[in-house]
Specification:
The complex is a heterodimer of chains A (112) and B (112).
Chain A: E1 4-7, E2 10-13, E3 18-25, E4 31-37, E5 44-50, E6 53-57, E7 64-70, E8 73-79, E9 87-94, E10 102-103, E11 107-111
Parallel strand pairs in A: 2-11
Antiparallel strand pairs in A: 1-3, 3-8, 4-5, 4-9, 5-6, 7-8, 9-10, 9-11
Chain B: E1 4-7, E2 10-14, E3 19-25, E4 31-37, E5 43-48, E6 52-56, E7 59-64, E8 69-74, E9 83-90, E10 101-102, E11 106-111
Parallel strand pairs in B: 2-11
Antiparallel strand pairs in B: 1-3, 3-8, 4-5, 4-9, 6-7, 7-8, 9-10, 9-11
The chains are: A mainly beta (112), B mainly beta (112).
Chain lengths: 112, 112
């Protein structure tokens, strides 16, 4: 079962709200990723976790806060977002830092 | 980081036609994947192909790592093939570790 599950599928939030995006995989993968995709653009890397430790932060603003509680779960905590942060947020996992990446269906975020 | 260029940017085909999508990259890679992004935003894995040739039904792909390019062949296209095709590469010597960097994609429309 090559499945990465993301919740919620859609999220609308105000600029003062605090919300979280969740990602789960049960493939035994040890690397997990957050990507951000704006309309008609390719996905852009935000964070990489390897063995539950943050290994890459692509200069993402602090209003995005990742968390990896265990090897199967990855969260993205959102606070004080701006309307320009509205995008599709994609989670992915891979067996390690090499190997095939598998993506979830994404969480479509709208910031009002 | 590694530069990824895809061509053509847009392609319109009549159902039943064949096509070739190209991906050029600027440095050695240890990961190359082709994805199809459907209208709902999900990235569907087509091929994990850092080198060599693979086939899956009407689709096939070839990566010539020494010449830094990959090709995706679509034969007997169907309307369900419409969407955006992304090439993504990763390399251990990149600033982003092993995470994938995406090209800008080829937007394919197959008409009946």
């Amino acid at each position: 079962d090559t499945e990465v599950t993301q919740t919620p599928k859609h999220l609308v939030m105000g600029m003062t709200n605090k919300k979280s995006l969740k990602c789960e995989q049960h493939m035994g993968h040890r690397a997990m990723y957050w990507y951000k995709q704006k309309a008609k653009k390719p996905p852009e890397l935000m964070f990489v976790y390897s063995y539950e430790k943050l290994s890459i932060n692509e200069s993402v603003p602090s209003r995005f806060s990742p968390e990896c509680p265990n090897s199967s779960l990855l969260n993205l905590h959102l606070h004080a977002l701006q309307p320009e942060d509205s995008a599709l947020y994609l989670c992915a996992s891979s067996p390690g830092l090499t190997g095939e990446l598998f993506f979830g269906e994404g969480s479509r975020l709208t910031v009002l | 980081g590694i530069q990824v260029e895809q061509s053509p940017p847009d392609l319109i085909l009549q159902e039943g036609a064949n096509s070739t999508l190209r991906c050029n990259f600027s440095d050695s890679v240890n990961n190359l994947q082709w994805f199809h992004q459907n209208p709902w935003g999900q990235l569907i894995n087509l091929f994990y192909i850092p080198s060599g040739t693979k086939q899956n039904g009407r689709l096939s792909a070839t990566t010539v790592a020494t010449e830094r390019y990959s090709l995706l062949y679509i034969s007997s296209s169907q309307t369900t093939d419409s969407g955006v095709y992304f090439c993504a590469v990763g390399a251990s010597n990149s600033n982003s570790g092993y995470a994938l960097n995406f090209g800008k994609g080829t937007s394919l429309l197959v008409t009946p």
